[in-house]
């Protein structure tokens, strides 16, 4: 009898998981957009997130982030954080810019920031992904303090500027979407435009190992508590008269230098920056399996860093 109950329980769990994998959780189309007949797009309404920055929501988010989110994150992965002293050079709101290859990137940034800065940080999230259903929009807004930003067509929400004016830091992933193979994609100019337009600094962040820990397509980190490195850099300030088009490459280069520093040493990376010889973080010109293999090399402790790929 007991054996039968155990088998029944296992079968039930297996069935629930199978249904969950096949369930349509959002409103995204199930067939390619090119296979659907053209229809004039309906005017979409912007999901309001101002309520998520009210005192009551902030108090709830503090419990969720410091308690559940931080505990689950550190149970599943092993974050190695460096460069936090660079954040002391920032006074006032800033745009926090990081490379993006995993859904782990947002929790990693929020859970490694100093508490005072984290409490005043909001995250730009794709409107067509995180705000396509009310329950996903509500959950991401309350837990991560997200706000919708349109990534198609290069349109920018007015919210980032409003938040900066109110003293909030804004996290932006300039690649627009997660990397398909763990290597850094081309940075768009949105973050640079926001910084130049509002005269605020940019804090570069290099995240290494999050793709190996939870690549695109996975809903949970891989077993084994893999190490993920989060490295903060010195703030970048737009020069007087510098345009967003001119500022954007400096932001991308700063993030690339942090990833190079994580792969080797601070001294070697600084010498390459000074010589203008920092290795590209776009990965090898090779087959996809090779690119994925290179980007999933385990993070090693300080002093045992491997050579950067050239």
From TrEMBL:
Residues 274-310 are annotated as: Disordered. This is Phospholipid/glycerol acyltransferase domain-containing protein. It comes from the Bacteria. CDD domains: LPLAT_AGPAT-like. SUPFAM superfamilies: Glycerol-3-phosphate (1)-acyltransferase (SSF69593). The keyword Transmembrane helix does not apply. InterPro entries: Plipid/glycerol_acylTrfase (IPR002123). It comes from Kribbella sancticallisti. Keywords: Acyltransferase, Transferase. Residues 94-210 form the Phospholipid/glycerol acyltransferase domain.
């Amino acid at each position: 009898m007991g054996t039968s109950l155990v088998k029944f329980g296992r079968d039930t769990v297996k069935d629930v998981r199978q249904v969950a994998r096949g369930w349509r959780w959002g409103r995204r189309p199930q067939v390619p957009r090119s296979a659907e007949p053209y229809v004039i797009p309906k005017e979409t309404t912007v999901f309001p997130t101002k309520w998520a920055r009210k005192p009551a929501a902030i108090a709830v988010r503090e419990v969720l982030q410091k308690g559940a989110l931080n505990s689950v994150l550190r149970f599943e992965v092993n974050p190695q954080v460096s460069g936090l002293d660079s954040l002391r050079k920032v006074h006032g709101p800033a745009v926090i810019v990081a490379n993006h290859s995993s859904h782990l990137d947002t929790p990693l940034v929020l859970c490694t920031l100093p508490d005072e800065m984290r409490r005043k940080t909001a995250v730009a999230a794709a409107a067509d992904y995180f705000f396509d259903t009310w329950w996903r929009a509500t959950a991401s807004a309350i837990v991560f303090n997200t706000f919708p930003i349109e990534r198609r067509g290069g349109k920018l929400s007015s919210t980032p500027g409003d938040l900066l004016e109110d003293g909030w830091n804004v996290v932006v992933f300039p690649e627009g979407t997660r990397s398909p193979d763990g290597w850094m994609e081309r940075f768009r100019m949105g973050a640079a435009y926001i910084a130049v337009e509002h005269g605020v600094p940019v804090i570069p962040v290099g995240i290494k190992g999050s793709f190996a820990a939870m690549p695109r397509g996975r809903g949970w980190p891989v077993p084994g508590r893999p190490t993920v490195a989060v490295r903060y850099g010195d703030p970048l300030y737009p020069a007087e008269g510098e345009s967003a088009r001119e500022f954007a490459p400096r932001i991308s280069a700063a993030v690339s230098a942090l990833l190079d520093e994580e792969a080797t040493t601070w001294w070697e990376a600084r010498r390459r920056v000074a010589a203008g010889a920092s290795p590209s973080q776009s990965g090898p010109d090779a087959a996809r399996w090779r690119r994925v293999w290179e980007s999933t090399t385990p993070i090693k402790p300080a002093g045992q860093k491997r050579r950067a790929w050239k």
